[in-house]
Specification:
The protein is an alpha+beta fold. Helix content is 13%, strand content 23%. It has one domain. 6% of the residues are buried.
Length: 90
C-alpha cells in the first residue's frame, strides 16, 4: 500500500477486502485467529455479525505515513439483540 501512495494523497477511506487485508497486520492477525471472517458477500465481519468498519484517514504523520482508524456505520455489541438476531448473508 505504501508503494501506491508515493507522490499521492492517501485515500480518505479504505474498505478492507481480501486484497487489502495483508496491509493491515492487526486485522490480518484477527483473521488468522478466526476472530473475523468474510461473509458470502465478501464483507469482513466479527463473529457476532457486526461488520468490520471502514478504515478512515485521521492524519498523515510528518514522515508521510497515513494513520487510519476503524469506523463502522452499523456496529453492534456481541450481546445485543442485533447480534442475537443477526442472519449471515446467504
Amino acid at each position: 500500500m505504501d508503494d501506491l501512495m508515493d507522490n499521492q494523497s492517501p485515500p480518505k477511506k479504505i474498505i478492507l477486502t481480501n486484497e487489502e487485508l495483508p496491509y493491515w497486520p492487526t486485522f490480518q492477525k484477527l483473521f488468522g485467529e478466526g476472530k473475523i471472517v468474510f461473509d458470502k458477500t465478501g464483507r469482513l465481519r466479527y463473529l457476532h455479525g457486526a461488520p468490520v468498519g471502514d478504515m478512515i484517514l485521521v492524519r498523515v504523520n510528518k514522515d508521510g505515513k497515513a494513520v487510519y482508524k476503524e469506523s463502522a456505520e452499523e456496529w453492534f455489541d456481541p450481546d445485543s439483540p442485533a447480534a442475537m438476531n443477526f442472519e449471515w448473508p446467504k
